[in-house]
Amino acid sequence: MEKNWITILSLTLIAIIFCIAALFMPWWSISASPEAKIVLNSNLKTDYNLFQTVTGTKMTTNNTESVTVPLWNLTEKPENSAPLSSALSVTLTLAVAGVGVSSLMMGMLVLSYFGKPLLRYAMWAGFIAAILLLLPPVSLTTTLPPAISKLSKLTPLDIPSTWASINPRDISGFWGAVKSASADFPSWAKGENFWIWGAESGWYLAFTAALLIALASLLIRYATVKKK
Amino acid sequence: MTEEKPSTVSMLSLIGGILMLVNALSIGINGGPIILSSFTISSPANIMDPNAPFWARVSFGFRGLAEGVWIPVWLISAIIVLYCSIMLYIKPIQRKIWGFLIILFSILSVVYGGGFIIGLILGVVGGAIGFEWPKSVKDTFFGKIIRAAKLDSTLYQNLKEDRTALKQAAYTIIFLNILSGLGCGFYSFITEKILKSGSLNIPFRALLLGEMFIDLPPFTPAIIYIGEAVLKWIILSILIYVVGVLLAGGKAKFDKVGAAVAFAYVPISLQFFMFFVLASKPHLAFTWPFAVVLLTNIWVVFVLIVAVKQTLEITLGKALGVVSLAGAIYLWVNQTFFMPLNIPYSIKFFFGPESLFLMVISFLVFLSALFGVFSKH
């Protein structure tokens, strides 16, 4: 049991670190595609955070420009940012709840090591935490695309005039890409992606944390069944 | 000595699973396959020039299959490897299920970089050794393969006492040549696509973006290589037996010589990883594949010398002589009969010019005489 307990505790701890880190990391981004980065030797990336902020970073060979603005700065009318704002709020609430229940599970695990009969509760807390941590990525995946299309622009930075244009209405799914127009790229890169968008580090970390917590709970379940 | 629980193999596949998870997460954060190159370039024209300097890149993940919406799938796949690795330790009675799943999902990880390749190796080795638990690691199929690669002479002593050695040898030959055939097949398929494409678009996608062209033809060498390898294995075994036992006075039965020779081919399995690395045009079709084939074959020679010395119970000098003479005849047979065979998407290097080839053969024969192969004392 000793080794199992260390494994379960390590998995839970890693999951908690992942989901706390996820809260402060971007969950969605739009950027120049890897092919565009090579061709243009520069990059423009915009990260969307759960705390209703948007960070735009433009990197060229001799300059890096970064700016963070509130979400409503991307709209002409503040009410147009409301759907996205609400999507991000729901995601944040669920993620914080997931962190809370995961921490509770961790506490129960530690107490059970010192003899308190809490292992079964820790297992159920783990399953609930896994669901709570899985819900934010799923929720954002379904709610973000229609919400983001209401914005006036996707990035707080100016897109260079020689680059392909991108409009919030182009965002038809959570993951996606816009191909280059023939004039944007040299002949050998024609038809390749110019802009790509999709999940960012926060989304992946929360998803991984959910899987790790579920794994830890499955191991507790096995340990408790074995004990009986 | 057997462990009470498969902790070593479980740990191997666990580390493999962690690397796969990190690999999948880093592709997610990077927005595409992780590509490490010798220097940054902004156009494929820079590396497709016939006078281009040496440039090489390794790609962890296949573009189009590794990133975007696929990442959650790869994260789940890596978590399954982690789960099975832990369960292999906790519930070793179901080792066959856990071992099989670890191998399956580790192989799948090739698509997203195989946990920086190391994860794939650890996962497959851990899963396969776990599958055979409670056998001690060194007696498992992969344990023997690792021992052969490490030039461990005790392996051949064990093979001499093992009644199933020849059967294992046959499996080894098949397994090694599937790996080598897949590596060579995919490498030459991609190389042909790059070199024969009219525009720079294919080189751009393959070399700079890490795109993998998956099709059925590259699988053919893996199948044909098996037939060719079995023939070569029998020929080399006969040659070693005739030269080593009948001529040089070594002591071994033919089946034991055959088993030892099969394990000598172990280093060619590394040819599987050839297609992860691609180079600039002047080095794509020759330098890199030649380096891989040459190094793996030199390694084969070293393993063969240890195998012959131990199996035939002869001195190191005589083993060198036996390998030289048998190797000289084998090289000639290979150059005359196997090289002209037209196997699609295979990688072959002709030894030329013919005068140089004959000189090398003569030198090897002379070397064998010098090491006393023609004397039974």
CATH architecture of chain A: Up-down Bundle
- How would you state the average pLDDT of chain B, rounded? 91
CATH class of chain A: Mainly Alpha
Strands ordered across the widest β-sheet of chain A = 4-3-2-1-6-5
Count of all domains of chain A: 1
What's the shape of chain A? elongated
Largest interface, Cβ cutoff 8 Å = A-B, 33 and 34 residues
Summarize the structure.
With 228 residues, chain A is an alpha+beta fold. Chain A has helices at residues 2-23, 34-40, 82-113, 119-148, 201-227; strands at residues 28-32, 43-48, 53-60, 63-70, 176-179, 193-199.
Keyword list:
heterodimer; A: 228 residues; alpha+beta; Butyryl-CoA Dehydrogenase, subunit A, domain 3; 5 helices; 6 strands; elongated; B: 377 residues; mainly alpha; 15 helices; 3 strands; 3% strand; flat
Protein architecture, described:
The complex is a heterodimer of chains A (228) and B (377). By secondary structure, chain A is an alpha+beta fold. Chain A has a single domain, classed as Butyryl-CoA Dehydrogenase, subunit A, domain 3, CATH 1.20.140. Chain A is 52% helix and 17% strand. Chain A has a six-stranded antiparallel beta sheet. In chain A, a hairpin with a 4-residue loop joins strand 2 and strand 3. The longest helix of chain A has 32 residues. Chain A is elongated, with a radius of gyration of 21 Å. The model of chain A has no long low-confidence stretch (mean pLDDT 90). The model of chain B has no long low-confidence stretch (mean pLDDT 91). In chain B, helix 10 packs across helix 11. With 377 residues, chain B is mostly helical. Chain B has a domain of 208 residues. At the A-B interface, helix 1, helix 2, strand 6 and helix 5 of A face helix 1, helix 3 and helix 9 of B.
